[in-house]
Automatic annotation (TrEMBL):
Pfam families xref list: YchF-GTPase_C
GO cellular component terms attached to this protein's record: cytoplasm
Protein keywords: ATP-binding, Coiled coil, Metal-binding, Nucleotide-binding
Family matches, as InterPro entries: ATPase_YchF/OLA1 (IPR004396), Beta-grasp_dom_sf (IPR012675), GTP-bd (IPR006073), P-loop_NTPase (IPR027417), TGS-like (IPR012676), TGS-like_dom_sf (IPR023192), YchF_C (IPR013029)
Keyword Metal-binding (UniProt): yes
Coiled-coil blocks: 122-156
Role noted for this protein: ATPase that binds to both the 70S ribosome and the 50S ribosomal subunit in a nucleotide-independent manner.
Domain YchF C-terminal: 277-359
Entry keyword annotation includes ATP-binding: yes
Superkingdom of the organism of origin: Bacteria
MF annotations from Gene Ontology: ATP binding; ATP hydrolysis activity; GTP binding; metal ion binding; ribosomal large subunit binding
Protein name: Ribosome-binding ATPase YchF
Amino acid sequence: MKTGIIGLPQVGKTSLFRILTRAHLSAPAFANPREAHIGVAKVPDDRLDRLAALYNPKKLTHTSVEYVDVGAIGQDALKETAYLGHLRQVDALAHVVRVFEDAAIPHVGVIDPLRDIRNVEFDLMVSDLGQIEKRLERLEKDLKKMKTAELEKEFELLNRANAHLGGEKPLRELEMTAEDKKRIRGFMFLSEKPILYVLNIGESVELGRELEEAASKYKLTDIAARPNGAATAICGKVEAELSEMSDADAAEFLSSYGLKESGLTRLIRTTYGLLGLISFFTAGEDECRAWQIPAHTRAQVAAGAIHSDLEKHFIRAETIRWDQLLEAGSEANARAKGTLRLEGKDYIVQDGDVLHIRHSG
């Protein structure tokens, strides 16, 4: 699952990409502003860390999110085939919005995050409208030659999408059935992708409070509450400093700002949720590991995330909540207390479940 990092020039998005993915890219690597850079960020998960403290495993494996830095966005960039191609391939968007003041870094006009969000959203919608108008023209010709139920359904859906965009509303807010979404999946519309607004704020002595209140302060609450949207805040300058510190020093540094975790941790976790992902765990002395699956996944399918043979030969899943396992202190104690239970193939795996798959293979 990929998340594209987008934004206007000079908002700090490439710096964010470097910090997120710990990518040590030289200046020549960024010589082409339209070139996409791909990196992977580990998903921090205190639940997994606490399970590891119980088992003391030989190996600890977190899940990850892939991020793609695609260069500054704008109508000119969205006309370029290569740029559009990179952006269409991502599953969600992280739109970095500048809030920080810095005279050394130029910005067109006054700092206005809501204006910048609307401008970028408009560009995404214009790109989608161009696609839809071309396809509708083609469909009209095809329907004159031969009417089919599938072509008529596509024509109706695209006309509805066209009207929705005409009302300056992104496609992520358009009500669609699973069949509708499948029908337009191939278009990879930009304004249909889930979006996370990332406010890049300035450093302050009350950074903890500033980060918590940023969305409401800059009037993003309503936008972030719309379907398939979310908002979070970071301080790029502080995150850059944290990325160079040891864990102990970073914890002390965060504490000095009244923070328990970094903005990046919240950003990654919010991205994960926006992508519709959850984590379940396997735990033992050899390895404690988080596994990434879509929400509402059945146990048998979840077993396939570990190994295809486990899905094929699935019998039952021994299941317990991560906190119940920690409370019990061991699987044996949990079994004795009755909190370790057996679930069948149709059990819907919950975020934070610890699973042991019984199989016949």
